[in-house]
Predict the 3D structure of the following.
Amino acid sequence: MLSLIIKDFRAQKQYLLLLFIMIAGFSAGFNIAQRVEADIEVELYILAVVLSTLFASKLFTLFDFQANAALFFAALPVTRKQMVIAAYSSSALLAVVTLSVHYIAVVLSSTELLRAEHSFMYEAPMWIFAFVIMVLTDAFSFPFSFKYGLVKGSFFYGCFFITLIITAIITINTLNPAGLIYSWFNAFLKQSPVWIISQLIVFGIIILGTSIFISMRTYQGKDL
Amino acid sequence: MKIIISNASPEPIYQQICSQIKTQIISSELEEGAPLPSIRKLAQELHISVITTKRAYEELEKEGFIDTVVGKGTFVAIQNMELLREKKMKSIEDQMTKLVQEAQRMGIELAELQEILTILYTEND
Amino acid sequence: MTNALEITNLCKSYKGFHLQNVSFNLPTGYIMGLIGPNGAGKTTIIKTILNLVMKQEGSIKVFGLDHQKEEVAIKKRIGFVFDTPAFYPHLNLKQLKNVVAPFYEQWDNTVFDDLLDRFTLPLNKPLKQFSRGMNMKASIAIALSHHADFIIMDEPTSGLDPVVRREMLDVLRGIMQDENKSILFSSHVTSDIEQAADFITYVNQGQVVFSKTKDDVNESFAIVKGGNDLLNASSAKSFVAVREGEFGFEGLSADVHASKKIFGEQAVYEKASLEDIMFYHNLKFKSTN
């Protein structure tokens, strides 16, 4: 089981190293650019961190969904269940490692002024938030990959994601500020931070659990 | 021990092995108690199926030419010379019966056949 | 005699393909060759044993254990080779070994190094620079390095030149010196199977045509040739299939003794090669469909 989780790290050492250098360079570069031009949007940076980590994790698990590799690993002494859990675990593990590299690069390249200006970048919530987004993305994308393989899976997942975004935009645009959803959202935000976070965690676990369940069901019956 | 098998021969391979080992036992090239290769070793060397060598050994064992001792291997059986001679005689008789039948079919007289036999026997001496 | 593999009434349907009631056994200690034309179902059978393709009906036992309930325990003792080249093209063999070895408790580096030596494979060259033959040899080396009791190979000799092919068959024979090992390999190259197999299972259009020892196959099948005057409705029935030519017929008999009773010395009998056997069965399949 452990071999299954770390097999990708073993197989892609060189690629990982290159990736980490790029990520560290990017995060450090952001801070250095801040010193020259102080008003770079921090939101843009956060988005970039999330996207680059996502990209890394998708590239990383890409090999597993190649037909040949899936066939080979499924023939090793492992069950399909273990393969599914390993895919989620190694992707989450990679997210932790990648975000850590980001964080370390940011800390090392910061100045006191920057730390005072963007204090949230040096605190846990921002990085937990990024991690949660990563895990949720996995939760939505893995079932597609397990069901349809690499190419078709990515395509269907892409379609699903675009539909989701469009629906969200339409919903927000047509939302009446006095409407039901808006007031519910407002009420939600008014709760204590601890309560909000615990609710988010429960919500995340439910989504992740459902996702793992669906992935297992589809992958256990799949002909490779 | 020497075994040469031919894939082109119409004789089944297990019989080829049997007859070659038998010949070598009768001619004492293979001495009593001499170890024979294991069926797996023989199959590997001859590039044939284990099933074939197994069948050959079973045949030889049934006829009393070899003995298999569990856990030790296969050996040339201690031969009863009387029995061996009898076996050889039987085989000669069989061949001669065929010969006589063939001669009768062609209408060759006994005297004529005896004459041929005498010539061949003395020539070979 | 225990069986390394027991397949009973295995069924599996895809679009346009059915595996129908496939049954055969492989006793422990022997090599079985799986032959059949492309698309006959050889690969599907092999994949089903390993749970890569899910069976619909029937039972499969490996080492006497159910292949789904005891999946991991069974797979630990299996070495497999597929007809697909390496999937981590950027790795070299040493790195690939480091990925695969931890999956097997019994992994043995000395065996692996010996095989690489024997196959003259480089340890430090990326797999993407390997020829097809080298890739196949690499897969075989990986499959044979954890003292597996049962080795399953799908077309292991495809893409190999004749010399390497012989080498590989020699390696297999070497493994068979241990009577607890068993091998199942598919091939459409009949000479490989004629050379190495103890049992032959012939599959065509998703069905097992026969599963017998090689000696049985050699002794029962024969090519019978004779004048067309010998051929009538009842005597033609004794053949798997028969071809009538201008100057005589040529047919495959599944029981040479029965044929000799029918045709006597008026016909000629020759050993049937596996290729002959496959060819005539294909004729039969074509005419019945």
Summary: The CA atoms of residues 132 and 201 of chain A lie 9 Å apart. Chain A is about 85% helix and 0% strand. The mean pLDDT of chain A is 79.
